[in-house]
């Protein structure tokens, strides 16, 4: 299925670049799509919006780093920023919004 192949490539791109300042437009452009088409395509194939996927991926990474002894000397803020969130406030706002969805 060509859609699954492209989706896998997109997810790999996110896995490799989640810590960077990426957004819908950056990733859409990288794959040669306009952002509106890409947004719709991503939601159809992955089953959630791009930003929800990216933020969930980043939050999962924060959780993994917090459990990793290698990063025990890092502050929560450092770990959060290492995972691509620009500020603590943004991270906690997104975390709270996602808890409300559970």
How would you characterize the largest beta sheet? none
Query: How many strand elements?
Result: 0
**Helix proportion:** over 70%
Write down the oligomeric state.
single chain
| Radius of gyration (Å) | 15 Å
Strand content bin = under 5%
Average pLDDT level: 93
Distance between the termini: 31 Å
- Derived from helix and strand composition plus strand pairing, the structural class reads mainly alpha
Q: Which labels suit this protein?
A:
102 residues, mainly alpha, elongated
Structural account:
Helix 2 crosses helix 3. The chain has 102 residues and is mainly α. The chain has 6 helices and no strands. The model has no long low-confidence stretch (mean pLDDT 93). It starts with a helix and ends with a helix. 73% of the residues lie in helices and 0% in strands. The protein has helices spanning 2-17, 24-30, 35-46, 50-67, 76-82, 88-101.
Provide the fold topology.
Elements lengths: L1 H16 L6 H7 L4 H12 L3 H18 L8 H7 L5 H14 L1
In a few lines, what is going on in this structure?
The chain is mainly alpha-helical.
């Amino acid at each position: 299925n060509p859609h699954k192949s492209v989706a896998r490539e997109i997810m790999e791109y996110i896995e490799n670049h989640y810590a960077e300042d990426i957004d819908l437009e950056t990733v859409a452009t990288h794959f040669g799509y306009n952002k509106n088409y890409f947004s719709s395509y991503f939601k159809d194939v992955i089953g959630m919006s791009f930003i929800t996927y990216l933020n969930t991926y980043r939050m999962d990474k924060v959780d993994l780093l917090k459990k990793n002894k290698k990063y025990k000397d890092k502050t929560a803020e450092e770990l959060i920023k290492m995972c691509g969130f620009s500020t603590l406030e943004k991270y906690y706002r997104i975390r709270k919004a996602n808890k409300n969805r559970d």
